[in-house]
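As described in the Methods, two query proteins were run sequentially through the folding procedure within a single session, without resetting any intermediate state between them. The first query and its resulting structure tokens are shown here.
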Amino acid sequence: MALPREYTGQNCSAARALEVVGERWTLLIVRDALYGVRRFTDFQAHLDIPRAVLADRLGALVESGVLERVRGATGRGHDYVLTDKGIELWPIVRSLSMWGEQFYPSDKGVHRFYTHTGCDAELDVNGRCTKCGQSVPAADVTVVPGPALRGQNARTDPVSRALAAPHRLLEPLTIG
């Protein structure tokens, strides 16, 4: 039996936020959208998520205004693009990723580094550039794969291969 999505009886903004992004897979979909994944098949290939679950989560994110479903760049199919509301989830995804690296590290090293595109310096745990001290918005962040994602550790799906190169957040990945 599936758990309900609502936290009835909770008069709390965190509970209301979890109603939108708290289900399994949802933050990983948002993370991939931040990384530039846009197509249903690419989300599925990268996450190994059942099609029905992915369709449900994408539909819920569109309904809540986190993603927008738009005509695909090729004119065929649809893409899922983060709205401003969805982009505001970047600090949460970044913080959760950095928390995971700190408390649940891989024996193969760091998975990803986040750098300030303008300075080419890493972000600290608060999302500030370690060189200029600026709080860096998602559009000015470059994702750099770490050792845990390279070599023998590398996944071979098309999205993982595209993510194996440094790239800016929010820019569509070239997959193929």
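Immediately afterward, the second query was submitted; its sequence and tokens are:
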Amino acid sequence: MIQGKVCVSVRSANAEEAASAVQPILDLVDVVEIRLDKMTVSQVAKCCSLLPVPLLFTNRPTWEGGEFAGPEEQRLEPLLEAVRLKAAYVDLELRAEKALRKQLLADVQCSPTRLILSWHDFNSTPDAGELNDLLEQMHRSGADIGKIITTAHDEGDVLRVLALQEKARALGFPLSCFCMGECGRISRFASLYLGGFMSYVAVDKVQATAPGQFSANRFHKLRTLFSYAD
């Protein structure tokens, strides 16, 4: 059974704390996301040194649910450093200035690093037309992977988001899509089995970085149960 990747998102103040936090669950995940906006000072090189595993670097701004509040050019700097150091992935928001996206895309093209273009809605889930438009924008952008995350209030929201995988498959475009919130928890799991590129988990329930996020251990147990055959 084909499954997507599992990424643990880490919100630590420095590289040493991040490495210590994920060490017990490294065998349960495929990728470690370093949330640079949660760090006191960005430590990209140190993270790469302490964690010789596939790393995803994200520097989420306050206007998209993160904690980085400085100038956009400054926010981009550690992501460019991650590309130079050949990190597995970097994440940039679809809403970010196009000039910044162009700069990051140019560097990614000369590196094995893959660019994830992301979009988050922490309040609701748009209609199918808007969701499809977001996917098409990501596909046209030149990014390697798309990420569309919404907040679900009922099962209809969840179904609309998961339906994006059919269009993404037709485009041949890797996409991570699921819903935040209690109603959306099932989508975090189901997405992996419906063509989703990656789902995100927390080190533990205390360190969750988004509403409805599973811990790495609980998510692993669900996957084990789901794949068990008598």
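The radius of gyration is 17 Å. We note this only descriptively and draw no conclusion about the first query from it.
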